[in-house]
Design goal:
This protein is an all-alpha fold. Helix content is 60%, strand content 2%. The chain is built from nine helices and two strands; from the N terminus they run H-H-H-H-H-H-H-H-H-E-E. Helix 6 runs antiparallel to helix 9. The longest helix has 32 residues. The radius of gyration is 24 Å and the shape is globular. InterPro entries: Heme-iron_electron_transfer (IPR051936), NarG-like_domain (IPR023234), NarG-like_sf (IPR036197), Nitrate_red_gam (IPR003816). This is Respiratory nitrate reductase subunit gamma. It is a multi-pass membrane protein. It comes from Streptomyces violaceolatus.
Length: 256
Amino acid sequence: MSAAPAAPAPLAAASGSVLLLWVAVPYICLAVFAVGHVWRYRQDQFGWTSRTTQLLEHRWLRWGSPLFHLGAFMVIAGHVVGLAVPASWTEAAGADEHTYHTTAVWAGSVAGVAMVAGLGMLCARRLLTRRIRLGTDRSDKVLFPLLSATVLLGITATAAHNVFGAGYDYRSTVSVWFRGLFTLQPQPEAIAGAPLLFQLHALSACLLFAVWPFTRLVHVWSAPVGYLVRPYVVYRRRAAAPGRTAGPARRDRHPV
């Protein structure tokens, strides 16, 4: 692992381009993310869905969807630990830098491969299946390339610097910048000195958050938790079939 970079310069010392890229753009994207969800929920509740195409094609979807979602959950969990949790916390929990680095690289590689494989299948079925391709709207045409770019940039950055390279401690730069945004103490110089691949990955992620409310990604906030507590629906026959007596009412769990 390479040595940690020097401490970032104060916000006032940052150049205009650095402030634009690493302060203005992230906050604009986060504002669009928050306001866009409110607008979408109030204006387009019927469109608040993943718009499944399972009935049009299911062979690719059967493998692509589980791989993509499993990989995405693992990647998100890894980003939460790597970006939101300071290194001092993981060290206090007993995970030194070498242990964390080794675990992050191997777990991240498995998650990245699963996510790329699943996303590749989902993109391929959308391009190769005519009925699905014709149903692709403008939001999908923006979402899929942007999502693919974000995923590939993240995997390439990890592979280039932390798998085949000398190693790069992003928790002392990118993570510091990320946490500073949410504590309203931005430190743009922390990420301004990071490798280009990490910068591009961060910028593409910001843009992904900006388009999130206007795409099918909104369905992640609609996990069907309420299904577990829905009441039973009682089905009764209106009349007995000829020669048969009406049986007891059936009580099956179905969505209302």
